[in-house]
């Protein structure tokens, strides 16, 4: 397990810790996803499994001891050098302060140090905030961002938006691109 990233945010006067999730984070992660009203909410069981089986490719943020957000990801079985980011969520009281970006940067830094060379995620066309966050990540990492259609609306039940695949490569550690 990696060392948690803790720092005091002088602007908000809060202590922020970004770390890998543990089982106790599963229920708060489910609550944050459910309360987001924009994410597809997985079962509470899925978040517990995520904390157990995919902790090394996920991050949570605690602010003053309370879970404030999470990023879930996994390495693709057929492409072990590819990190797929499944969800990025920040609890309502903590939005608008760059917490999602901080968690994503910490995750990319950790995974790039372990040999991951590219990131994939899917984003629906009605989510410009996510597009902007991942485009910003690519710029900061001096990487190329590409977008291709992946899932069409008719492949989803219940009127889900289509999902485009965004790929960021090459992923490097901060030490490599500074």
Automatic annotation (TrEMBL):
Query: Is Lipid biosynthesis one of the keywords UniProt gives this record?
Result: no
Q: Identify the keywords attached in UniProt to this record, alphabetized.
A: Acyltransferase, Transferase
Enzyme type, top EC level: transferase
PROSITE patterns noted in UniProt = GNAT
Q: Which GO terms describe its biological process?
A: ectoine biosynthetic process
- InterPro entries annotated for this entry? Acyl_CoA_acyltransferase, Ectoine_EctA, GNAT_dom
Domain N-acetyltransferase, which positions? 16-172
Q: In which pathway does it act?
A: Amine and polyamine biosynthesis; ectoine biosynthesis; L-ectoine from L-aspartate 4-semialdehyde: step 2/3
Keyword Acyltransferase part of the UniProt annotation: yes
GO MF term set: diaminobutyrate acetyltransferase activity
Give the Enzyme Commission number.
2.3.1.178
Task: State the Pfam families in the record.
Answer: Acetyltransf_1
NCBIfam families for this protein: ectoine_EctA
Q: Which family does it belong to?
A: Belongs to the acetyltransferase family. EctA subfamily.
Protein name listed in UniProt: L-2,4-diaminobutyric acid acetyltransferase
Originating organism: Nocardia yunnanensis
Per the record, the gene is ectA
């Amino acid at each position: 397990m990696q060392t948690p990233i803790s720092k005091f945010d002088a602007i908000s006067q809060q202590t922020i810790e970004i770390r890998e999730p543990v089982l106790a984070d599963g229920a708060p992660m489910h609550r944050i996803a459910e309360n987001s009203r924009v994410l597809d909410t997985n079962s509470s069981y899925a978040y517990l499994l995520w904390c157990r089986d995919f902790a090394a490719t996920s991050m949570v943020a605690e602010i003053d001891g309370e879970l404030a957000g999470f990023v879930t990801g996994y390495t693709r079985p057929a492409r072990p050098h590819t990190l797929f980011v499944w969800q990025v969520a920040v609890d309502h009281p903590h939005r608008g302060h760059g917490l999602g970006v901080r968690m994503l940067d910490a995750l990319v830094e950790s995974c790039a140090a372990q040999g991951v060379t590219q990131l994939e995620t899917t984003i629906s066309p009605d989510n410009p905030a996510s597009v902007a966050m991942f485009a910003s990540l690519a710029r900061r990492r001096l990487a190329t961002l590409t977008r291709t259609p992946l899932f069409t609306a008719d492949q989803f039940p219940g009127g889900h938006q289509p999902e485009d695949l965004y790929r960021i490569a090459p992923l490097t550690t901060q030490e490599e691109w500074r």
